[in-house]
Specification:
The protein has about 260 residues and is of the alpha/beta class. Helix content is about 30%, strand content about 20%. The protein is elongated and about 60 Å long.
Amino acid sequence: MDSIDNVQLTMNNEQLYENLRFPRFFVGRVALGAPVILSGDDLHHATKVLRLKTGEKAVFCDDTGTDYICEYVGADRFEILAKRENDSEPKVYFRLFQCVPKGEKLDFIVQKVTELGVSEIIPVISKRCISRPDKKSNKIQRLQKIAEAAAKQSGRGKIPLVHEFTSFNDSLKLCKKENLGIIFYENGGKKLNEIVVGCDVKSAPVDIFIGSEGGFEASEIEAAVKAGLITASLGKLILRTETAPVAAIAILMNLTGEI
């Protein structure tokens, strides 16, 4: 792999990046000094759906937070024009533990929390979950594709990881003591501004638990508190399971200075 010092990058294209929303592709490791080659679904999307023409620009991301502004030179090849750190990724690392809702609601949740900046999504099977997907289903693969599409649309530098379905008890084991753990409970809890004030949220992940349509059972809240989580409230209104994570993440992003 060529050193960046040995590659002539036309950094004046930085201005183009700021002013235009180029198509975005996650391509893994990028070798400076060599063309970026697209294949498969990405190539089809670029050439058949977007119908990119020679000379048009696209942004390639290595999924570690680095963007490469590229120019289409024909066939399956793009020439790297400039490299920059992606500045859209939040400094706070949010993990959403979402109890599985009915129907296609999880698709919506994954899409929206990805747009808001969540880094990991863990689908949880709690006691009141009506939907109980088989671990061998292809649902996680589809959800990961939804996350990728949302990451592209929102200009992110990383694709959130969608985990396999896990039980509520096992999900609590994933929460380390140094993390800020928050579980939303319809029967009351602290306000988010009271929880966040004074916390160093940028030093460790923030874990957020959202219940399914039926919420959490009292025994689950008791286990969560015993594991170190803080019960929280989103106000007097009862929000739908697909609304609650969007509201919670948006509020937390604001309280932590991300939006």
